[in-house]
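Crash report, auto-generated. Payload:
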Amino acid sequence: MALPIPPVQAIDTETTGLAPHGSDTMFSYSLCDWDGKTSVHRLDGGPIRQTTNHANLDKFWSDTSIEKTMFNAKFDTLFCEKKLGKRLAEQSVIHDSYIMSHLLRSDRKVHKLKELAWELAGIPRDDEQAIHAYVRGVEENFSHVPEHLMEIYQHRDAERTMLMHRYMYPQIQANPKFLEIYKMEMDLIKVTMRMEKRGMMIHRQRTLDTMAKLEKDLALATQEFVTISEKITGQRIFPGQTAKVSKLLFKYLKLPDLADGSTSKDDVLLPLREQHPHPIIDLLLKCRSWKHGVSMLASYLDYADDTDTIHPSINTCGAGSTGRESCSKPNLQNVEKDGNLKNPFPSPARLCFRPRPDHILIPIDYAGQEMRWIVHISGDKRMLAEFNRVGSDPHSLAAGIFYPPFTEEEERDFHFVNDAIRKGFSAFKKGQKEFKMLRDSAKNTNFAKPYGCNFVKAGFILGIPEPLSKKRCAEYDAMFPDLVGCLRNGMQEVRECGYTTNDFGRRLYINPSEAYMWLNYRAQSDGAEVTKRAQVRVHKYLREATSEEVGILLAIHDEILIEYPRKRLKDIGDIMGNIHKLMTTFPEASVPMEIEAKLCTVSWAQKRELVWKGVA
DNA sequence: GTGTCACGCGCG
DNA sequence: AAAGCGCGCGTGACAC
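Recovered output after restart:
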């Protein structure tokens, strides 16, 4: 008896390049049905064939009884949409074995179709060699490769795509949690396609002006650096020559070598700058930062289209190990902020990004995501209670424990400790600089403790002597036993089964020799899960409520950036109220989620608080 | 010239 | 500055 054939077909597209939002187009596609029957269709080379195959492609996508499976579905779907000139994703059931591969084995190093098909089904990997040889020879894209060469490879790629679907999808279906996450991921892909298309606008003139200023300052600083280095060593050393710079600092100038010859900013240059100020250190910091700034700004301009809009490539499973997203070409998740205390000579790149004309930007970020998830994961009763208290402040709570007023005995033994610490945290009110200082140290320790730091390091963070730190840590440990103890249990789990499962059912493989990474992976992945769901929910809502006049531009791990037309500003209270609800409703979490919204009218860098009706 | 590596650094 | 981790990308150094 024949089994019913699932209505799934695989499609693989061939394109002139990798930029679906740019000038690249699709010139051919191949299909494979459930049984492995493949076909190749050219969309170039003569009007008759072109018209026929265009119509066939349209028919393929219009038939909603067929589910479409792809490998990296966002890529193929975007090119099909571009070719057919209409939206396809929203009204189709699409599958993606690239996503499945990530969900099933997050520890896999490569998730490439050819590699997977070789590893899982023994399909040889040699079919692309002839094409690559050809492309290299004439320096052209695949559309110029002779058709007979392309065909062999296209048949096989369509077949691989179907094989991967047939191999992996049952494994996804077998686990209800996997299936739920997979469906969310497929929704997210559709959302991400629209985000990429919308793109982020750069202010061209402002960028050019900023680059000109940075280049000028950079030239001066470089000149000075080379001159001084020559004076000291007799040799012209440039700031980029790390090995020579290391020699200059530690051999010639005999500055203390803090990290085995490394000249990295945070670990070496900034501490040196405080303790042994030397003009060469600041010059080096300036040269590095500004050179980096200039080249990043230049690359942003390169990526911008003729409307000054950047369409990045967002990989929804970019961080294979944690479920986080990544962004490339360019990476808009690491655009430099100004006012970063860690860089004394910044390049203010976010100033160069602007809202589209007649729009504002609304960055919405989750407050204290990582800490919330750490506390949830640990299940620590007392800390959970603090998070669930109205007006809670876990870092102040910790500050009260780490910094009680000194006893007489402590005053005698540790009289050299600074005044603020001796008086204790309770002696200060919000707004005072001592309050902030002590709370910040307690906050850092609150993070460090669950990650397993000992009392020696804690004492260093807290700025108190070791014997005192030992005592205070013991009090902290007694008060929050599960918070400091959860890492052990998690590590045990990883050593036993090689993976952990986050609070949404996603499986995270962790190398048992690196089991200590458990808590970090868990916190990152739970946070990622929330932000991903937030995007799907908010996009769906904005589509229905505003016909996509309001839309998401970007997600940055615990933050989403929204584009909002000025003409709808009168509705902002309602819309933000609904977004707030969608972004914070997560029964999976035993701690409340909170968001903070800001508002940018001029640039991404210049933010004001955004308060909407009904929220204090 | 092309590819790979380690480093450094931006964001979270 | 300080406890841990995840990404992308520009650079210089080095092998081929």
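Post-recovery validation: Residues 242, 262-266, 288-289, 292, 296, 324, 331-337, 340, 343, 347, 349, 369-370, 524, 527, 556-559 of chain A lie near DNA strand B (CB under 10 Å from a C1').
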